[in-house]
Design a protein that fits this description.
Layout lengths: L15 H14 L3 H5 L13 H27 L3 H6 L6 H12 L3 H14 L8 H23 L5 H10 L6 H8 L8 H14 L51 E3 L10 E4 L6 E2 L5 E14 L5 E16 L2 E12 L6 E4 H5 L4 E5 L2 E6 L2 E8 L5 E3 L1 E3 L8 E3 L6 H7 L5 H9 L13 H7 L18 E7 L12 E7 L5 E6 L5 H14 L6 E4 L8 H9 L3 E4 L9 H21 L6 H15 L9 H6 L14 E5 L12 E9 L6 E5 L4 E5 L2 E3 L22 E2 L5 E3 L62 H6 L3 H18 L2 E4 L10 E9 L5 E10 L20 H14 L2 E7 L7 E8 L12 E6 L7 H15 L3 E2 L6 E4 L4 E6 L2 E6 L2 H14 L2 E5 L2 E2 L2 E5 L5 E4 L1 H10 L31 H14 L5 H7 L8 H17 L3 E4 L8 E6 L11 E8 L2 E9 L7 H25 L8 E3 L3 H8 L8
GO molecular function: aspartic-type endopeptidase activity; ATP binding; DNA-directed DNA polymerase activity; endonuclease activity; nucleic acid binding; RNA-directed DNA polymerase activity; zinc ion binding
Protein name: Retrovirus-related Pol polyprotein from transposon TNT 1-94
GO biological process, one term: DNA recombination
C-alpha cells in the first residue's frame, strides 16, 4: 500500500521542533533513521580482504549509498531554499543532520536548562482551556524526558507531570484538588486527570461574551439625558457615580472614603479603532483627573457613551513568562464601555511597533517585545496584562472643615496668607488668623538672605587680603601651569598672581606674597578666601597664624562673601582672553596674557583714592603710560654682536607678550623657536590689528615709524610663567642662546615646548585605548558624578580590604620623617563584549616622593612574556589541558614591607586626629610594591610544590601533577590535566589571598575560546571593534592587506597637526600586534618609527591598517590538539628598507602546534652592507629566540625536534653552514 505523509518545510528556528519530530518519524518509516543518528556507518574494506569479502563489501556499500541518498532526499525535500543552500556542502545524510543540529539545536546543557525552566515555570494562560493547557505541559514534559534520556540516560515519572498540572490550575478548580488527592497514587493517570478537569470546566459558568467592543445594552437608553444627584452631572446615575463613596457619612462630622481592593484579573482587548485606553472600573486608577465636561465616545453602533475623566492605571505585563510592572497613562474612565480597551493608535504614537501574525500579536520598541496578546475565538486580541489596583487603606478619615487661614492657605496651593485672606473676604468667607508657620512653604519657598554691604572697609593697605584660585585652564602654558592664584589688597586694589601646575602649590605662593608685602612695608591683618582645600589646610593656617594674621573663610556655596577675589579673577581672565583672541595668539600663551593684564591693571586700574593707581598706593612708585604696547604686536629684537657673525641678520622677529619691570625691557615670544626671551632693545611694528597665527611666518612691512626701547642685551627665559615684580628681578641662570653663534650649538638651547608635547617615557605608552565611559580623575569628581554611589561603594570595598589585611596602623608622624600623599584612582572594569563588569577604586600612594635608601631600595619586578603565554596555550591545546583563570584582589596589599613608610590618611576617610598611616604592608603606588608582591607570590607558589621556570620567572611548574601556572602581576592562568590537583591548589590560593576564579576566556585583553574538539582559539575581536569605534572607522570599507605592496617611505607631504591622534593610534595598534596579530606587526613597527614627525601619508597608512582590521576583526591564532610538536621557524629581512638610515628590518615567526607563539618585526641595530648580511643578522636573532623557545618547551615536557631555520637567501644559508668569504660579507 502506498504511503504518503505531509511534512512542513523547515523555515527556521520557529518550526524546528515540530519539523524534527515529523522528519524523524518519516526517516524511521523508510528505515533510514540509523544513518542520520550515526548508528549505521558506511562499511570499510580491509586491505587484506578476500575476493568474496570484496563482493559482499561492494553490495553492502551500494545498499548504504542508496539508503543514504533516500535519507538525503527526505531531508532536503522538506527544507526551504535557505536551508538547502545552508547544507549544500554536506555530502551525506549524517552531515546534513549534524549541520542542522549545530544551527538550530542548543548544546545539551543549554537545551536541558531551557526545557526545565519552560516546564517548571509555565503557567496556565487565561485564554486556554484545561485540555489545551495540559497538552502544552505534556509536550514540554515529553521534550524534557527525551533530552534527559539522551543526556543522562534517565526520565522523569508521570507523577511529576500530574503534580505540575495541578499546581498550575486556577482558583476555580480549588475544590477538585482535594478530591484528586484522595485518589490512590496507583490509580492516577494523565488521561483520567484530563477527562475530569474537562468535565469540571464544562460545568463552570461561561465567561462574558466579547464579540463587540460596544456599550452594554441596559435600560439606560436615555442615559445621557439623566442626571446624577450625587455629582450633579448628566450621563450616569447615582449608583454608578465614582464620587458616591466620598459622600457617605459616618458618625460625627467626619467623612469616610472607602475603596475596596480588587484581585480579579480583567482582560484588556487591543482595539485599533480606540483613540485612548478605556476602562469602566474607577477602582483601577492610581490618580484621576475629572474632565470639565463629559466627552462623548462613539462606538460601533453609532451610539455615544460618555467619558468622565482620565488617569494612570498600574498594570503587570507578561513577557517571556515573567510579569513585568508597568503603567498606562491617559486612560479614560468610561462607565458604559463593555470591556477594557487598549488603544493601538495611542501606543503607536509613543514609538511602539504593532505586529499581528497568526494567533499572536505583539508590541515592540527598540527591538524588544514589551507586550504580547493571543487571538480569541471571536477574532479579538486579548493582551497578557493584568491590573494592579492601588493599595488604599480601608478608611481614610477627613477632619471636619476648620475655617482657619492655614487650612485655606493649603487649599489654595500655599499662596501668601495676606492675599488668601483678602481673596476669601471678597467672597464672604471669614477665616480666623493662624500664626502657625507653614512647613511646606519652608521647604518650597526658602530663599537666601540678602548680602548687605559691609559697614566698614579697610582704610590702610594690607588690612585685608582677598585670595582665590582660578583654573584649570584648557591648555597648559609654556611653563606647564594650569592654575593661577590671585592675592588682592582690599584698600589699594593691588593684585599679585602666581602660576601653578596644581593647587597644592598655594602655600608656597602665599609664603612669597607675605614676604613681598613685608618688604614693601605692609602689615597684613586679615586674610579672606573660600573654604577650598588649597586654603583650608594645616600649612596655610599655620603660616598665617605664625604671622598673627586673622583667617576668615566664606561659607560653603556662598562665593558672594569673597566677591572681591571672584570678580577680580573674572576681570583678569576676560582681559587675557580678549588680548589673546584679538591677535589670534595660541592658548598656550594664556599665562603671559594674564601676567600682562595684571601688570596693566595694577598701573591703570581705579582705587578708592582718586588720581592714584594700585601700584602707587602699594609701592609709592609712578608709571609712564606711554611705555605700554599692544599685546601680540610684531617686533624685532636686536642681536648683540657677540651672538652673530659678520653677515648674520642683526635682529630676529618675534611678538611682544609682556613687560619686565618698568623700563627695563620687554618679553618677546619667538614663534619658530617657541620660546620667550627678554630684551631691552626692541623695535615695534605698527600696533594695528592683525592676526599672528594668520601670518604663517611671513614678515610684515613696517608702516609707521618704529619705536625703539632701551637696553642692549637678550636673555633667554627658563619658563614663561615667571610672575612680574615691580622691578625687574633676576630670572635665574640662563644663557643668551636665542641666537646661535660659531661657538654655540643647537643642543645648548632650551626649546620651551608645551609639556603636553614632550615625549613620555616608555612606561607611559598608550598601548590600550581609554575607557569609553567617563572615569573621574579626583575624589571630588567621583562623589559629584552620577555614579557617586557606585564609586563610594568601590572605595568602601578598598578600605575594607586594607582593614582586613591590617595594611597600616595610625601613629603620630616622627619629627625626622615626612609622610607621603595618596590619591584615588578610578577604573570601570569591562567584560570581553565591552559591558560594564564593576566599578573599581584603588588607593594609590604618591610613590614619586619616596627617596632611595630611605623609603625603598630595589624596585624591579618581572611580568610574564606574551610569548610564554601563547606557548603555554599551545601546549594546553595539544595536551587538552583544562584552563582556569584567577585574579588576586588588591594583590599589592599582601606584600610585606621592610622599610618604615608613613602616609597621610586617604581622602574622604580621615578621622580628624591628624595622625598618619604607618604602612605595615605594601599598597599600590609604592616604588617597591610590585617587587614585594612578586616575592610574596613566588614564596607561596613554591610552598605549594611549584618551581620557578628558568625560561620565564613568571612561569611556575609542577612536573608530577602537570600543572602550569603563569602570572601577570595579579592575574594568572592555571593549565593542568589533573582537575583534582587544580582544585587543591585553588583552595590553597583562596585561603592565602582574596581571589576571583573563573573560566579562562578573557586574559589581559586576549579573548580565549576553548573549542569542543580541544583546539584553542585566541583573538581580540572586541578590542578591534573598540579601536575602530574610537577612531570613527566602524563603517569603513575593508581591504585585503594591511599595507600596500612596496616599502613604506617618507614623502614630502605636510606634517600632521598636533590634534591628530597619531601616537594614540600607534599605541592601540601596537598592543594588537604584540598580543594576537602578527600580520600587522611589520606595518605598525615601521609607522612607529616616525612618531616625532608623522606626515599625512603615514596617517593614511594607519587608516589602511584599520580598514584591514575591519575585514579581519574575527581573525586570531588557532592552536590545534592534533598537530605534531615540531617547532617551526621562518626568518626574513629586507635590505636597506629605511631610506634615511639605510638600515634593514628583520622578521621572524615561530609556529608551535599549528599556531604562532612568537614573532618579531624590528629594525636592525646596524647597517647591513648586503642582502646576505641582512638575512644573516635576522637568522642570528631568530636562532637566539629558537634556543629560548626550545628550553621553554622542554620545561613544559614537550619534547621537540631541533627547530630548522627557514631562510629564503641561499647566500645567507651558505654563510651559516660554512663561514667562508667573510671579508665580502
Amino acid at each position: 500500500m502506498e504511503f504518503r505523509a505531509h511534512v512542513d518545510k523547515l523555515v527556521g528556528a520557529s518550526n524546528w521542533s515540530k519539523w524534527k519530530r515529523q522528519v524523524e518519524l518519516l526517516l524511521r518509516h523508510h528505515d533510514v533513521h540509523e544513518l542520520v543518528s550515526g548508528d549505521r556507518v558506511c562499511p570499510v574494506l580491509a586491505e587484506d580482504a578476500t575476493p568474496e569479502v570484496t563482493v559482499l563489501y561492494e553490495k553492502s556499500r551500494k545498499s548504504f549509498m542508496k539508503d543514504d541518498s533516500l535519507a538525503q532526499l527526505v531531508l532536503v525535500g522538506s527544507m526551504d531554499d535557505a536551508n538547502v543552500e545552508l547544507t549544500a556542502t554536506c555530502d551525506s545524510a549524517k552531515s546534513i543532520w549534524e549541520k542542522l543540529l549545530s544551527v538550530y539545536e542548543q548544546s545539551s546543557g543549554q537545551r536541558l536548562d531551557r526545557l526545565m525552566e519552560q516546564f517548571f515555570r509555565s503557567e496556565k494562560d487565561g485564554d486556554d482551556d484545561v485540555v489545551t493547557h495540559i497538552a502544552k505541559l505534556q509536550k514540554n514534559f515529553s521534550e524534557l524526558n527525551d533530552e534527559l534520556k539522551r543526556v543522562a540516560k534517565t526520565t522523569l515519572p508521570e507523577l511529576l507531570l500530574m503534580s505540575r498540572i495541578m499546581s498550575t490550575l486556577p482558583l476555580e478548580f480549588f475544590e477538585f484538588k482535594s478530591v484528586w488527592e484522595s485518589i490512590p497514587i496507583e490509580e492516577r493517570s494523565v488521561n483520567k486527570l484530563t477527562e475530569r478537569l474537562r468535565l469540571i470546566e464544562m460545568r463552570l459558568p461561561s465567561k462574558p461574551d466579547s464579540t463587540a467592543l460596544v456599550a452594554t445594552k441596559k435600560k439606560a437608553a436615555k442615559k445621557v439625558e439623566r442626571k446624577c444627584y450625587v455629582c450633579r452631572k448628566p450621563g450616569h446615575i447615582a449608583k454608578d457615580c465614582w464620587k458616591k463613596d466620598k459622600k457617605q457619612k459616618t458618625s460625627g462630622d467626619a467623612f469616610v472614603c472607602i475603596v475596596e481592593g480588587v484581585t480579579e484579573k480583567e482582560q484588556w482587548i487591543a482595539d485599533s479603532g480606540a483613540s485612548a485606553h478605556m476602562t469602566s472600573y474607577r477602582k483601577y486608577f492610581l490618580d484621576f483627573k475629572e474632565f470639565p465636561s463629559p466627552k462623548p465616545v462613539y462606538v460601533g453602533n453609532n451610539n455615544a457613551i460618555m467619558a468622565y475623566g482620565q488617569g494612570t492605571v498600574n498594570v503587570d505585563m507578561k513577557v517571556n513568562g515573567k510579569w513585568v510592572s508597568n503603567h498606562l497613562s491617559e486612560v479614560w474612565y468610561v462607565p458604559d464601555v463593555s470591556r477594557n480597551l487598549f488603544s493601538v493608535s495611542q501606543t503607536l504614537a509613543k514609538g511602539f511597533v504593532f505586529r499581528a501574525e497568526g494567533n499572536e500579536c505583539s508590541f515592540t520598541r527598540d527591538g524588544h517585545v514589551r507586550l504580547r496578546g493571543i487571538r480569541t475565538v471571536n477574532g479579538l486580541y486579548a493582551l497578557k496584562m493584568r491590573v494592579v489596583c492601588p493599595e488604599v487603606p480601608a478608611e481614610v478619615c477627613f477632619a471636619s472643615a476648620d475655617q482657619s487661614l492655614q487650612l485655606w492657605h493649603e487649599r489654595l496651593c500655599h499662596q501668601n496668607k495676606p492675599y488668601v485672606k483678602e481673596f476669601l473676604g471678597q467672597r464672604g468667607i471669614e477665616v480666623c488668623e493662624s500664626k502657625v508657620s507653614c512647613e511646606g512653604c519652608l521647604y518650597g519657598k526658602h530663599q537666601r538672605g540678602r548680602f548687605h554691604e559691609r559697614p566698614s572697609r579697610p582704610i590702610v593697605t594690607g588690612a585685608l587680603i582677598h585670595a582665590d584660585v582660578c583654573g584649570p585652564m584648557q591648555e597648559r602654558s609654556i611653563g606647564g601651569s594650569r592654575y593661577f592664584v590671585c592675592f588682592k589688597d582690599d584698600f589699594s586694589r593691588f593684585r599679585r598672581v602666581f602660576f601653578m601646575e596644581s593647587k597644592s602649590e598655594v602655600p608656597n605662593c602665599l609664603k612669597v606674597f607675605l614676604s613681598e608685602a613685608k618688604t614693601a612695608g605692609h602689615t597684613i591683618k586679615e586674610f579672606l578666601s573660600d573654604g577650598g582645600g588649597e586654603f583650608k589646610n594645616s600649612q596655610v593656617c599655620g603660616m598665617l597664624q605664625s604671622c598673627g594674621i586673622n583667617i576668615r573663610y566664606s561659607m560653603p556655596y556662598t562665593p558672594e562673601q569673597n566677591g572681591a577675589a571672584e570678580r577680580e579673577n573674572r576681570t583678569i581672565v576676560e582681559a587675557a582672553r580678549s588680548i589673546l583672541h584679538h591677535k589670534g595668539l595660541p592658548l598656550k600663551l594664556w599665562a603671559e596674557a594674564v601676567n600682562t593684564a595684571v601688570y596693566v591693571l595694577n598701573r591703570t586700574g581705579p582705587t578708592r583714592e582718586k588720581e592714584k593707581t594700585p601700584i602707587e598706593l602699594w609701592s609709592a612708585s609712578s608709571f609712564n603710560v606711554h611705555y605700554l604696547k599692544v599685546f601680540g604686536t610684531k617686533c624685532f629684537v636686536h642681536v648683540p654682536k657677540q651672538r652673530r657673525q659678520k653677515l648674520d641678520p642683526k635682529s630676529v622677529a618675534g611678538f611682544f607678550v609682556g613687560y619686565c619691570g618698568e623700563k627695563d625691557g620687554y618679553r618677546v615670544w619667538l614663534k619658530k623657536q617657541n620660546k620667550i626671551i627678554l630684551s631691552r632693545d626692541v623695535i615695534f611694528e605698527n600696533e594695528a590689528s592683525y592676526s599672528v597665527m594668520a601670518q604663517n611666518g611671513k614678515s610684515c612691512s613696517v608702516v609707521n615709524e618704529p619705536s625703539v626701547g632701551h637696553g642692549s642685551e637678550i636673555e633667554l627665559i627658563k619658563s614663561s610663567d615667571v610672575p612680574y615684580s615691580d622691578v625687574c628681578q633676576e630670572i635665574g641662570e640662563a644663557s643668551c642662546d636665542a641666537i646661535d653663534s660659531k661657538e654655540s650649538s643647537d643642543e645648548q638651547e632650551r626649546n620651551l615646548r608645551d609639556r603636553s608635547m614632550l615625549k613620555k617615557p616608555a612606561r607611559y605608552d598608550n598601548c590600550v585605548l581609554l575607557a569609553e565611559h567617563a572615569e573621574p580623575d579626583t575624589y571630588k569628581e567621583a562623589i559629584a558624578s552620577k555614579e557617586s554611589s557606585e564609586w563610594l561603594a568601590a572605595m568602601k570595598e578598598e578600605m575594607d580590604s586594607f582593614e582586613a589585611n591590617n595594611t597600616w596602623e595610625l601613629v603620630n608622624l616622627p619629627q625626622d620623617r615626612k609622610a607621603i600623599g595618596s590619591r584615588w584612582v578610578y577604573k570601570i572594569k569591562k567584560n570581553a563584549d565591552g559591558t560594564v563588569q564593576r566599578f573599581k577604586a584603588r588607593l594609590v600612594a604618591k610613590g614619586y616622593s619616596q627617596k632611595v635608601g630611605v623609603d625603598f631600595n630595589e624596585t624591579f619586578s618581572p611580568v610574564v612574556r606574551w610569548d610564554t603565554i601563547r606557548t603555554v596555550l599551545s601546549v594546553a591545546a595539544y595536551k587538552k589541558l583544562k584552563l582556569v583563570q584567577f585574579d588576586v584582589k588588591t594583590a599589592f596589599l599582601y606584600g610585606d614591607l621592610q622599610e618604615d613608610i608613613y602616609m597621610h590618611q586617604p581622602q574622604g576617610f580621615e578621622d580628624g586626629t591628624g595622625q598618619v598611616c604607618k604602612l605595615l604592608k605594601s599598597i599600590y603606588g609604592l616604588k617597591q610594591a610590585p617587587r614585594v608582591w612578586n616575592e610574596r607570590f613566588k614564596s607561596f607558589a613554591m610552598k605549594c610544590g611549584l618551581k620557578q621556570s628558568n625560561s620565564d620567572p613568571c612561569l611556575f611548574l609542577n612536573d608530577e601533577k602537570s600543572i602550569y601556572l603563569i602570572v601577570y602581576v595579579d592575574d594568572g592562568i592555571i593549565a593542568s590535566v589533573d582537575e583534582q590537583a587544580v582544585k587543591q591548589f585553588l583552595e590553597k590560593l583562596k585561603s592565602e589571598f582574596s581571589v576571583v576564579i573563573g573560566v579562562a576566556n578573557y586574559f589581559l585583553g586576549m579573548q580565549i575560546e576553548c573549542l569542543e574538539d580541544g583546539d584553542i582559539f585566541v583573538h581580540q575581536e572586541g578590542y578591534c571593534r573598540k579601536i575602530l569605534k574610537h577612531f570613527e572607522m566602524s563603517e569603513c570599507n575593508s581591504v585585503s592587506t594591511p599595507v600596500e605592496k612596496g616599502t613604506i617611505t617618507t614623502d614630502h607631504s605636510e606634517f600632521l597637526p598636533a590634534t591628530v591622534p597619531y601616537r594614540e593610534a600607534i599605541g592601540s595598534l601596537m598592543f594588537l600586534a604584540i598580543v594576537s596579530r602578527p600580520d600587522i606587526s611589520y606595518a605598525v613597527g615601521v609607522l612607529s618609527q616616525v612618531l616625532d614627525k608623522p606626515q599625512q601619508v603615514h596617517w593614511s597608512m594607519i587608516k589602511r591598517i584599520m580598514r584591514y582590521l575591519k575585514g579581519t576583526e574575527k581573525c586570531g591564532i588557532l592552536f590545534k590538539c592534533n598537530e605534531d610538536n615540531t617547532l617551526q621557524c621562518f626568518t626574513d629581512s629586507d635590505y636597506a628598507g629605511d631610506p634615511l638610515s639605510r638600515r634593514s628590518t628583520s622578521g621572524m615567526i615561530f609556529m608551535s602546534y599549528g599556531g604562532a607563539v612568537s614573532w618579531r618585526s624590528q629594525r636592525q641595530s646596524c647597517i647591513a652592507l648586503s642582502t646576505t648580511e641582512a638575512e644573516f643578522i635576522a637568522a642570528s636573532q631568530a636562532a637566539k629566540e629558537a634556543i629560548w623557545l626550545g628550553n621553554l618547551l622542554s620545561e613544559l615536557r614537550c619534547v621537540s625536534t631541533i627547530p630548522v631555520l627557514q631562510i629564503d637567501n641561499q647566500s645567507a644559508i651558505r654563510l651559516v653552514k660554512n663561514p667562508e668569504f667573510h671579508s665580502r660579507t
